[in-house]
Design brief:
It is a single chain. The chain contains 14 helices and 6 strands. With 279 residues, the chain is α/β, with parallel strands linked by helices. It folds into 2 domains: 176 residues, no CATH class; 73 residues, no CATH class. α3 packs antiparallel against α4 and α3 runs antiparallel to α8. The two termini are 43 Å apart.
Length: 279
Protein backbone atom coordinates (compact mmCIF):
# COMPACT_ATOMS: atom_id res chain seq x y z
CA UNK A 1 0.00 0.00 0.00
CA UNK A 2 1.41 3.38 -0.98
CA UNK A 3 2.21 5.68 1.93
CA UNK A 4 1.12 9.33 1.88
CA UNK A 5 3.25 10.29 4.89
CA UNK A 6 7.04 10.04 5.01
CA UNK A 7 7.25 7.75 8.03
CA UNK A 8 10.96 8.42 8.49
CA UNK A 9 11.08 12.21 8.18
CA UNK A 10 7.54 13.53 8.74
CA UNK A 11 6.26 11.76 11.83
CA UNK A 12 4.82 15.01 13.12
CA UNK A 13 2.08 14.48 10.54
CA UNK A 14 0.91 11.33 12.33
CA UNK A 15 -1.85 11.30 14.90
CA UNK A 16 -0.21 12.00 18.26
CA UNK A 17 -1.13 8.62 19.77
CA UNK A 18 -0.18 6.72 16.64
CA UNK A 19 3.24 8.40 16.73
CA UNK A 20 3.71 7.59 20.41
CA UNK A 21 2.80 3.96 19.76
CA UNK A 22 5.27 3.66 16.86
CA UNK A 23 8.03 5.18 18.98
CA UNK A 24 7.15 2.91 21.89
CA UNK A 25 7.47 -0.10 19.59
CA UNK A 26 10.85 1.08 18.31
CA UNK A 27 12.55 2.32 21.44
CA UNK A 28 11.65 -0.11 24.20
CA UNK A 29 11.27 -3.78 25.06
CA UNK A 30 7.83 -3.57 23.54
CA UNK A 31 7.05 -7.27 23.21
CA UNK A 32 8.23 -7.98 26.74
CA UNK A 33 6.08 -5.14 28.07
CA UNK A 34 2.97 -5.97 26.05
CA UNK A 35 3.13 -9.44 27.58
CA UNK A 36 1.67 -7.77 30.68
CA UNK A 37 -1.49 -7.21 28.62
CA UNK A 38 -1.35 -10.40 26.55
CA UNK A 39 0.44 -12.90 28.81
CA UNK A 40 1.19 -15.70 26.37
CA UNK A 41 2.10 -18.99 27.94
CA UNK A 42 4.78 -21.37 26.79
CA UNK A 43 3.41 -23.71 24.13
CA UNK A 44 3.77 -27.38 25.02
CA UNK A 45 3.09 -30.33 22.71
CA UNK A 46 0.06 -32.39 23.72
CA UNK A 47 1.20 -36.01 23.75
CA UNK A 48 -1.25 -38.66 22.59
CA UNK A 49 -1.88 -41.70 24.75
CA UNK A 50 0.40 -44.54 23.62
CA UNK A 51 -2.45 -46.84 22.58
CA UNK A 52 -4.10 -44.14 20.49
CA UNK A 53 -0.78 -43.29 18.89
CA UNK A 54 -0.28 -46.93 17.85
CA UNK A 55 -3.83 -47.19 16.44
CA UNK A 56 -3.35 -44.09 14.27
CA UNK A 57 -0.01 -45.28 12.92
CA UNK A 58 -1.37 -48.79 12.25
CA UNK A 59 -4.48 -47.53 10.41
CA UNK A 60 -2.38 -45.05 8.43
CA UNK A 61 0.27 -47.55 7.38
CA UNK A 62 -2.41 -50.13 6.53
CA UNK A 63 -4.36 -47.56 4.46
CA UNK A 64 -7.51 -48.44 6.44
CA UNK A 65 -9.20 -45.15 5.62
CA UNK A 66 -12.53 -45.66 7.40
CA UNK A 67 -10.76 -46.69 10.61
CA UNK A 68 -8.34 -43.77 10.40
CA UNK A 69 -11.10 -41.22 9.78
CA UNK A 70 -13.14 -42.67 12.64
CA UNK A 71 -10.19 -42.31 15.03
CA UNK A 72 -9.49 -38.72 13.95
CA UNK A 73 -13.16 -37.75 14.26
CA UNK A 74 -12.82 -38.17 18.03
CA UNK A 75 -9.72 -35.98 18.31
CA UNK A 76 -9.78 -32.30 19.27
CA UNK A 77 -7.82 -31.21 16.19
CA UNK A 78 -6.90 -32.47 12.74
CA UNK A 79 -3.37 -32.95 11.35
CA UNK A 80 -3.79 -30.06 8.89
CA UNK A 81 -6.16 -27.16 8.20
CA UNK A 82 -8.99 -28.99 6.43
CA UNK A 83 -11.87 -26.66 5.41
CA UNK A 84 -14.67 -29.21 5.72
CA UNK A 85 -13.45 -31.22 8.71
CA UNK A 86 -15.74 -29.34 11.09
CA UNK A 87 -18.73 -30.43 8.98
CA UNK A 88 -17.59 -34.05 9.05
CA UNK A 89 -17.22 -33.93 12.82
CA UNK A 90 -20.40 -32.08 13.71
CA UNK A 91 -23.06 -32.23 10.99
CA UNK A 92 -25.28 -35.26 10.53
CA UNK A 93 -24.88 -37.11 7.25
CA UNK A 94 -21.77 -35.31 5.99
CA UNK A 95 -19.38 -38.15 6.78
CA UNK A 96 -21.63 -40.89 5.41
CA UNK A 97 -22.80 -39.16 2.23
CA UNK A 98 -19.58 -37.77 0.75
CA UNK A 99 -17.18 -40.59 -0.18
CA UNK A 100 -15.26 -38.45 -2.70
CA UNK A 101 -14.35 -35.95 0.00
CA UNK A 102 -13.34 -38.73 2.36
CA UNK A 103 -11.00 -40.06 -0.31
CA UNK A 104 -9.57 -36.59 -0.96
CA UNK A 105 -8.86 -36.14 2.76
CA UNK A 106 -7.36 -39.64 2.93
CA UNK A 107 -5.05 -38.84 0.01
CA UNK A 108 -3.88 -35.75 1.90
CA UNK A 109 -3.22 -37.80 5.02
CA UNK A 110 -1.35 -40.51 3.10
CA UNK A 111 0.82 -37.84 1.49
CA UNK A 112 2.28 -37.54 4.99
CA UNK A 113 4.02 -40.34 6.82
CA UNK A 114 2.16 -41.99 9.68
CA UNK A 115 4.67 -40.49 12.11
CA UNK A 116 4.18 -37.00 10.65
CA UNK A 117 0.42 -37.35 11.08
CA UNK A 118 0.88 -38.12 14.76
CA UNK A 119 3.43 -35.33 15.25
CA UNK A 120 0.97 -32.82 13.79
CA UNK A 121 -1.77 -34.04 16.10
CA UNK A 122 0.60 -33.61 19.04
CA UNK A 123 1.85 -30.18 18.03
CA UNK A 124 1.48 -27.33 20.50
CA UNK A 125 -1.82 -25.45 20.22
CA UNK A 126 -1.98 -21.95 18.79
CA UNK A 127 -1.57 -19.34 21.49
CA UNK A 128 -3.40 -16.39 19.95
CA UNK A 129 -6.98 -17.68 20.14
CA UNK A 130 -7.84 -16.03 23.47
CA UNK A 131 -6.31 -12.58 23.05
CA UNK A 132 -9.59 -10.74 23.64
CA UNK A 133 -10.15 -12.13 27.15
CA UNK A 134 -6.50 -11.37 27.97
CA UNK A 135 -7.08 -7.66 27.29
CA UNK A 136 -10.25 -7.69 29.38
CA UNK A 137 -8.48 -9.39 32.29
CA UNK A 138 -5.63 -6.87 32.13
CA UNK A 139 -8.08 -3.97 31.99
CA UNK A 140 -9.90 -5.19 35.10
CA UNK A 141 -6.62 -5.62 36.97
CA UNK A 142 -5.12 -2.29 35.87
CA UNK A 143 -8.05 0.06 36.52
CA UNK A 144 -10.73 0.62 39.15
CA UNK A 145 -14.10 -0.97 38.45
CA UNK A 146 -17.56 0.37 39.23
CA UNK A 147 -20.99 -1.25 38.96
CA UNK A 148 -23.34 0.45 36.55
CA UNK A 149 -25.13 2.80 38.96
CA UNK A 150 -21.90 4.04 40.57
CA UNK A 151 -20.30 4.25 37.13
CA UNK A 152 -23.12 6.40 35.80
CA UNK A 153 -23.01 8.70 38.83
CA UNK A 154 -19.22 9.04 39.11
CA UNK A 155 -17.77 12.49 38.37
CA UNK A 156 -14.12 12.24 39.42
CA UNK A 157 -11.46 9.71 38.51
CA UNK A 158 -10.89 6.93 35.96
CA UNK A 159 -13.20 3.93 36.11
CA UNK A 160 -14.08 0.87 34.04
CA UNK A 161 -17.65 -0.40 33.92
CA UNK A 162 -18.16 -3.68 35.74
CA UNK A 163 -21.28 -5.16 34.13
CA UNK A 164 -22.55 -8.15 32.19
CA UNK A 165 -22.45 -8.18 28.39
CA UNK A 166 -26.17 -7.45 28.10
CA UNK A 167 -26.22 -4.77 30.79
CA UNK A 168 -23.19 -3.01 29.31
CA UNK A 169 -24.53 -3.11 25.75
CA UNK A 170 -27.88 -1.75 26.90
CA UNK A 171 -26.08 1.11 28.67
CA UNK A 172 -23.99 1.89 25.58
CA UNK A 173 -27.03 1.92 23.30
CA UNK A 174 -29.64 3.56 25.47
CA UNK A 175 -27.58 5.49 28.01
CA UNK A 176 -24.82 6.72 25.72
CA UNK A 177 -26.79 6.52 22.45
CA UNK A 178 -24.04 4.71 20.59
CA UNK A 179 -24.99 2.49 17.62
CA UNK A 180 -22.91 -0.60 18.46
CA UNK A 181 -23.76 -4.24 17.76
CA UNK A 182 -21.74 -5.57 20.69
CA UNK A 183 -20.22 -4.42 23.93
CA UNK A 184 -16.99 -2.47 23.30
CA UNK A 185 -13.80 -3.94 24.77
CA UNK A 186 -13.22 -0.68 26.62
CA UNK A 187 -16.02 1.12 28.46
CA UNK A 188 -14.43 3.77 30.66
CA UNK A 189 -15.39 7.01 32.35
CA UNK A 190 -12.88 9.77 33.09
CA UNK A 191 -14.45 12.35 35.40
CA UNK A 192 -17.61 12.98 33.36
CA UNK A 193 -16.27 11.90 29.96
CA UNK A 194 -17.15 8.50 28.56
CA UNK A 195 -14.56 6.62 26.48
CA UNK A 196 -15.31 3.47 24.50
CA UNK A 197 -12.85 1.45 22.47
CA UNK A 198 -12.12 -1.74 20.57
CA UNK A 199 -8.93 -3.72 21.28
CA UNK A 200 -7.13 -5.98 18.80
CA UNK A 201 -3.91 -7.96 18.78
CA UNK A 202 -2.55 -8.08 15.21
CA UNK A 203 0.35 -10.50 15.04
CA UNK A 204 0.97 -10.55 11.29
CA UNK A 205 -0.23 -9.12 7.97
CA UNK A 206 -3.09 -10.72 6.10
CA UNK A 207 -6.72 -10.50 5.03
CA UNK A 208 -8.35 -11.35 8.36
CA UNK A 209 -5.96 -9.06 10.20
CA UNK A 210 -6.88 -6.22 7.83
CA UNK A 211 -10.56 -6.81 8.57
CA UNK A 212 -9.87 -6.41 12.29
CA UNK A 213 -7.99 -3.17 11.67
CA UNK A 214 -10.87 -1.86 9.55
CA UNK A 215 -13.27 -2.79 12.36
CA UNK A 216 -11.30 -0.64 14.80
CA UNK A 217 -11.00 2.28 12.38
CA UNK A 218 -14.73 2.15 11.61
CA UNK A 219 -15.53 2.30 15.32
CA UNK A 220 -13.35 5.40 15.67
CA UNK A 221 -14.66 7.25 12.63
CA UNK A 222 -18.35 6.85 13.57
CA UNK A 223 -18.12 9.31 16.45
CA UNK A 224 -21.50 10.10 18.02
CA UNK A 225 -22.19 12.82 20.56
CA UNK A 226 -19.70 13.51 23.33
CA UNK A 227 -18.53 9.92 23.77
CA UNK A 228 -14.84 9.49 22.88
CA UNK A 229 -13.99 6.54 20.63
CA UNK A 230 -10.51 5.04 20.60
CA UNK A 231 -8.79 2.11 18.92
CA UNK A 232 -6.42 -0.07 20.95
CA UNK A 233 -4.14 -2.05 18.66
CA UNK A 234 -0.96 -3.95 19.42
CA UNK A 235 1.56 -6.00 17.51
CA UNK A 236 2.60 -5.83 13.86
CA UNK A 237 0.87 -2.53 12.88
CA UNK A 238 3.42 -0.48 14.85
CA UNK A 239 6.40 -1.91 12.95
CA UNK A 240 8.24 0.35 10.50
CA UNK A 241 11.24 -1.65 9.26
CA UNK A 242 11.76 -5.20 8.04
CA UNK A 243 14.82 -7.11 9.23
CA UNK A 244 16.68 -6.02 6.05
CA UNK A 245 16.05 -2.35 6.89
CA UNK A 246 13.45 -1.63 4.22
CA UNK A 247 10.23 0.17 5.15
CA UNK A 248 7.12 -1.95 5.61
CA UNK A 249 4.36 -0.84 3.24
CA UNK A 250 1.92 -3.58 4.14
CA UNK A 251 -1.69 -2.40 4.19
CA UNK A 252 -2.14 -3.48 7.80
CA UNK A 253 0.62 -1.14 8.97
CA UNK A 254 -0.13 1.79 6.69
CA UNK A 255 -3.84 1.87 7.54
CA UNK A 256 -3.06 2.12 11.25
CA UNK A 257 -0.04 4.41 11.04
CA UNK A 258 -1.74 6.92 8.74
CA UNK A 259 -5.09 6.85 10.52
CA UNK A 260 -6.20 10.30 11.64
CA UNK A 261 -8.19 8.92 14.57
CA UNK A 262 -6.86 8.06 18.03
CA UNK A 263 -5.36 4.57 17.82
CA UNK A 264 -2.78 3.48 20.37
CA UNK A 265 -1.03 0.65 22.10
CA UNK A 266 -2.66 -0.67 25.27
CA UNK A 267 0.57 0.32 27.02
CA UNK A 268 -0.41 3.96 26.48
CA UNK A 269 -4.03 3.58 27.58
CA UNK A 270 -3.58 4.97 31.09
CA UNK A 271 -1.75 8.02 29.71
CA UNK A 272 -4.50 8.48 27.15
CA UNK A 273 -7.30 8.33 29.72
CA UNK A 274 -5.44 10.63 32.12
CA UNK A 275 -5.43 13.29 29.39
CA UNK A 276 -9.19 13.67 29.94
CA UNK A 277 -8.90 14.33 33.66
CA UNK A 278 -9.94 17.80 34.71
CA UNK A 279 -8.01 19.76 37.30
Amino acid sequence: MERTIDIENSRDELNEWVRKSVELFESSQYLDKIAEVYPLQTAHPERLEDGLRRRIISAHQGRRTNELIEILINEVKFPYDEPIWYLFKNIQGCLENNPNQIQRIADSLYAMTAEETVVRLESAPKLNTQMGPMFTNWLRAEFNLLDIDDFRNSTKGIFILNASEGEALNFVRNGLHQDLDKRPDLLAKVDETYVIGEAKWIGSPGGNQNKQVVEVINLCKKQRGNVIRVGIIDGFPWAIYKTNGTIINDKTCVMVQECEYDILSALLLREYLEAFLTV
